[in-house]
What we know:
The structure holds 2 protein chains of 2 kinds. By secondary structure, chain A is an alpha/beta fold. Chain A has 2 domains: 2-189 and 205-240, Thiamin diphosphate (ThDP)-binding fold, Pyr/PP domains (Rossmann fold, 3-Layer(aba) Sandwich), CATH 3.40.50.970; 249-385, 3-Layer(aba) Sandwich (Rossmann fold), CATH 3.40.50. Chain A is 42% helix and 19% strand. Chain A is built from 14 helices and 16 strands. Chain A has helices at 7-17, 32-44, 57-70, 80-85, 87-95, 120-123, 138-155, 180-186, 210-225, 227-242, 266-281, 298-305, 327-338, 358-370; strands at 2-6, 22-25, 50-53, 74-78, 101-106, 131-134, 159-164, 172-176, 203-204, 249-252, 259-263, 285-290, 292-294, 312-317, 344-349, 380-381. By secondary structure, chain B is α/β, with parallel strands linked by helices. Chain B contains 13 helices and 9 strands. In chain B, strand 1 (42-47), helix 3 (50-54) and strand 2 (66-70) form a beta-alpha-beta unit. In chain B, helix 2 packs across helix 8 and helix 4 packs parallel to helix 6. Chains A and B meet through helix 3, helix 5 and strand 9 of A and strand 1, strand 2, helix 4 and helix 6 of B.
Amino acid sequence: MQMLLSGNQAAAWAVKLARVQVVSAYPITPQTSLIETLAQMWAEGTFAGDFVVVESEYSAMSYLIGAASAGARSFTASASHGLAYMHELLHWAAGARLPLVMVNVNRAIGAPWCLEPDQGDSLSQRDTGWIQFYCSSVQEILDTVLVAFYVAETTRIPCMVIYDGFALSHIYEILDLPDQERVDEFLPPPPGEPALPAPEPVNLQPLVTSQVMTTLARSRHRAMKTVPRLLGELETSFQKVFARSFTFLESFGLAQAETVLIAAGAPAQTVQSALPDLNRKRGKVGLIRLKLFRPFPGAELYQLLENTAVEQIIVLDRNLSAGAGGIFAQEIRSALQQHGFQGKVLEFNLAGGLDLTPAMLERGLAYFEQVSPGEQKEPLWGGDLL
Amino acid sequence: MKKTILSQLELDEKLFSGHSACPGCAAVLTVRHIARTLGEDTVLVITASCWSVIAGAGPLRALDISVVHCPFPSGAAVASGLKKGLQRLGSPETRVVLLAGDGGTFDIGLQGLSGAAERNEDIIFICYDNEAYMNTGMQRSSATPYASYSTTTPAPLVNKNPKKDIVHIMAAHHVPYIATATIAYPSDLVAKIKKAMEIRGFRFFHIFSPCPPGWGSESHKSIELSRMAVETRLFPLMEVIGGREVVLNYLPEKYTPVEDYLRLQGRFSSLEPGHVMMIQENLERNWDYLQRASKRYRYEDEYWS
């Protein structure tokens, strides 16, 4: 069914279709319309799970840790300061191998107060052990929440579905809303049996030694490494059920490209729509849309670039690790160098949640044409192109 | 009353020997009584506290009921979510009980506790109060009494703040059931747990729990200190029903002077006469208030017949 939905509404619909059993949340801009949509569905009885509003993001994630420990399919959503407030529990959920799914709507973290879609909130949680997806369209938000439950429950790694505040959370797009039977075919309904109390009593998440901890860390790392392969397999079943594609790394115009822009989230959609024009005016520009960030699909990224004429990669980072640079750029540079990529990885930075316009892109590309390889001392700041 | 204690103790033992509690730990006895009263259809959530260690280093376990550990401030919300999950999955009868120390209740856990109480989550919250951060070696909490030494309030300055009145904070949430208890009165403790098991909604226990290494008391004195805390009226045995009905369970026939209680503990060794007088005056005022707010409750009438 074709529907006109905002990004937040699409996420709420996905939660309903995924037959989530427990939702616990705390409101924060720009996530609020997501939990308001769920609350409305819950009040009308169309969302059959439990919906619990708690007194903080900290308790929202704690609540889900409890619910998932009992065996319930569980979901929350947050943003910015709210996500930061959950930090300790994100580690805990991953360590406990709880298959939680959450949405994070990107928003800058203060000080000072700022509501714009900087990615620093979710990237600050990079090392908590969660799978991270960055979405670029409303359809993709709905699809990714469904995929996230499948992946989380298969690997027992919690999954974070991320998209840009306002630019996607509040933008309405027409999407294909699947019916319940199709979703059930792709994502089996959650189990009905409680996990606790166990027939033989258990002592879950107790104090352990470093030997136990290192074994657990290694097994989590291994489980993470299986995710790209699992997603690769899912492409087929997703296509079969929903008659559209789901990919974690998408490329446009690589065959002819000498320069490739790599972007995640809404800016990738901007680049994609500007690509024909950019190619006409500046020539030989391609795009790679990075959708999966954790685990980092380094080998898959290199495979896309292998045997192409790409000499220059420009990474669009709407985030900043002060003193180092854009976070995506660091990861991409490190992964590509490891695989032997010979070209340059340059930085185009939109920290603070700067909106990217096609005009800025064009000015940016003109700038990068002037930079001789290896001479970029610091990122090109989007703020200088306004 | 003696006959009743024995009948309670005939219930299944749920605490294994070989646990890692210190000698004379009142918290371990508290949980021993509680665990066997609760029985098998229980999940015990333990937030960071001495009991994170006592429950056993993985893969060992000291308790014969299912335990889920959780981060320090998260206890009330984890337990609430666990209960909700069990309800969703068709096990609404399974009891979810949270075990927290005074830090996880009075300090870092207070926000989550308040939230769970306000939502009237269907859990039993048990605070065993040893009046400081004992697992990390006796740093002050907001449950540390006035004039007590701690490693973060060393002598001669000692702790300048009065102990937070957690029972009245919880009473202000108008939860269905609040009780205080100590291991010096095991029948009272067990009867209150049983009573709580029959009630739905948020139930809160404040359990006085001497800690020999932290308090500088002898390990065989923990039960005596617990009894003295009640006999001095520093720690009244009481219940609050629905946040409004205050019940004093035990009126000592003779009041023990608070000085006798303080003298047995190294943490009060730098106490001056002025301090003792102030502590005595404070507890008299508190007792006065409680007597006016409450009605006397006789065990014989309801619990033990």
